[in-house]
Specification:
heterodimer, A: about 110 residues, mainly beta, 7-stranded mixed sheet, 4-stranded antiparallel sheet, 11 strands, globular, B: about 120 residues, about 55% strand
């Protein structure tokens, strides 16, 4: 199975900060990488696919980059509603696998 | 708008069975692949299963192979997960999700809690 490793596992930030989360795959996955946001007690929300393509309705302050094994999710100016846990996920091979999550808190 | 409404969770004893349902609306269900993803209490997300738009192919994570069956009824716009021989480690919130393309998840159900306990 392809292992997905996220860092950091948690971070503290302020409203307005630029935040970057890293995701590393145990083998090359081209750009078959998605990002999700999850708030406590809620279903995940899909943010991005193909490493950098935003789903409909996702604010442009979210951006993604990377290819192969190393990927990043960037929030350009953190908003109060962005405090949540973020997960990366590869869909290059079965089983689909998720990173362990990054909790973004105040 | 796309809606996925789940039902069927609950408390079940180890070794018993449970069936989850996911009713879809707001899109042409029969043209999309569908997935199940689970999340154990306090843990991260784990992909469980995928079924193609027409049910012609199915994929599972190793830990549920031979015990869980994903299926769909396109005439009822409903996705199912039949879970047999349940174990304590299957305790989780189960989510259904639509495949925007085969493997890209876009819309999610609200989740349903399955607790396996004696």
């Amino acid at each position: 199975d392809i292992q997905m490793t996220q860092s950091p596992s948690s971070l503290s930030a302020f409203v307005g900060d630029r935040v970057t989360i890293t995701c590393r795959a145990s083998q090359g996955i081209s750009n078959y990488l998605a990002w999700f946001q999850q708030k406590p007690g809620k279903a995940p929300k899909s943010l991005m696919y193909a490493a950098s393509s935003l789903h409909s309705g996702v604010p442009s302050r979210f951006s993604g980059s990377g290819s192969g094994t190393d990927f990043t999710l960037t929030i350009s100016s953190l908003q109060p509603e962005d405090f949540a846990t973020y997960y990366c996920q590869q869909y290059d091979d079965y089983p689909l696998t998720f990173g362990g999550g990054t909790k973004v808190e105040i | 708008q796309v809606q996925l409404v789940q039902s069927g969770g609950g408390v079940v004893q180890p070794g018993r069975s449970l069936r989850l349902s996911c009713a879809a609306s707001g899109f042409t269900f029969s043209t999309y692949a569908m997935h199940w993803v689970r999340q154990a209490p306090g843990k991260g997300l784990e992909w469980v299963a995928l079924i193609y738009y027409d049910g012609s192919d199915k994929y599972y994570t190793d830990s549920v192979k031979g015990r869980f069956t994903i299926s769909r009824d396109n005439s009822k716009n409903t996705l199912y997960l039949q879970m047999n021989s349940l174990r304590a480690e299957d305790t989780a919130v189960y989510y259904c999700a639509r495949g925007l393309t085969q493997l890209v998840l876009d819309h999610w159900g609200q989740g349903t809690l399955v607790t396996v306990s004696s």
